[in-house]
Design brief:
This protein has 286 residues and is an all-alpha fold. The protein has twelve helices and two strands, in the order ααααααβαβααααα. 24% of the residues are buried.
Length: 286
């Protein structure tokens, strides 16, 4: 939820978004017995490590941030939080000893910044016994970049998203608004360059993908047909998770308990690292 503060300044919205994300993860299958789910703001050591890292980070490194430049170019108002976003992200990874980080293609540079940060700290303060590992980006090639409604990468910052838990008329309106070219219904179309087909690939089995691709190339198959196909695929794919989310939404105390327990475990892990960090840096505690 700290990262969200770079673009969300409404108290009620931030609180609701945080709770909604917890619901999403749990509904999609995250098992709290196997993984800790928590809010960044419940781990005070995160802010402490972020500040230490910021004091080691050249401004020139942050100025090269592709994600930052991209958001500014697309009209997002710049602030210091957005500019230093990669360092908070680095702290969020390294404070728990993270080594393999699942991200989209657009976040690959941020993982490189994270590695630079870990290397810089180890070289300056712990050359003999490095404290932080060198994390690697884990990018699934078939979902490395998910297209949005307007063919740009899908991002809430751009307002071009389809929510996993959107359904009914809300989902239909978004799917039917996906930007396509003006090729007539009867003409053959290239599925490889179409935004709708790019989304279909995320949900359809290989055989189904080939069937739809063949219909594109044969002609007589319009983008409206493809959008209806996508709508059905999404409803089938996320139907079970949507039912689970509705049930979880009726148990807010359970969700808060999960977040509370996760925060306690995360805080213990973070503090174990911070003890070493403080000693290495020379931060006295009296």
């Amino acid at each position: 939820n700290y990262h969200a503060l770079t673009s969300v300044n409404n108290r009620e919205e931030l609180a609701q978004y945080s709770f909604d994300v917890a619901l999403d993860y749990l509904a999609l299958g995250l098992d709290p017995a196997k993984a800790n789910l928590f809010l960044q703001s419940d781990v005070p050591q995160l802010g402490e490590l972020t500040w230490i890292f910021l004091c080691l980070t050249p401004v020139s490194l942050l100025e090269k941030g592709v994600a930052y430049k991209d958001k500014i170019a697309n009209g997002l108002s710049p602030n210091a939080g957005l500019f230093t976003y990669p360092i908070l992200q680095a702290a969020d990874i390294l404070i728990y000893g993270g080594t393999l980080v699942p991200v989209g293609q657009d976040q690959k540079q941020n993982i490189e910044i994270c590695r630079d940060t870990a290397e810089r700290f180890n070289r300056m303060f712990a050359p003999e016994n490095p404290i932080f590992p060198m994390p690697e980006a884990y990018i699934l090639e078939d979902v490395a970049v998910v297209p949005g409604l307007d063919s740009r990468k899908m991002s809430k910052s751009y307002g071009n998203t389809i929510g996993i838990f959107d359904e009914g008329s809300v989902l239909k309106k978004k799917v039917m608004s996906i930007v396509t070219d003006s090729t007539p219904l009867e003409d053959p179309k290239n599925p490889e360059t179409d935004n709708v087909f790019a989304m279909i690939r995320l949900f359809a089995a290989p055989e189904k993908q080939e069937e739809i691709a063949a219909a594109y190339r044969a002609g007589g198959y319009g983008y409206g047909h493809a959008k209806k196909e996508l709508l059905g695929l999404m409803n089938d794919y996320f139907g079970e998770a949507r039912e689970k989310r509705r049930a979880l939404a009726q148990k807010p105390d359970f969700v808060r308990d999960v977040l509370r327990d996760g925060a306690q475990n995360a805080t213990k892990a973070a503090e174990a690292h911070m003890v070493k960090v403080r000693e290495a840096v020379g931060l006295m505690r009296v």
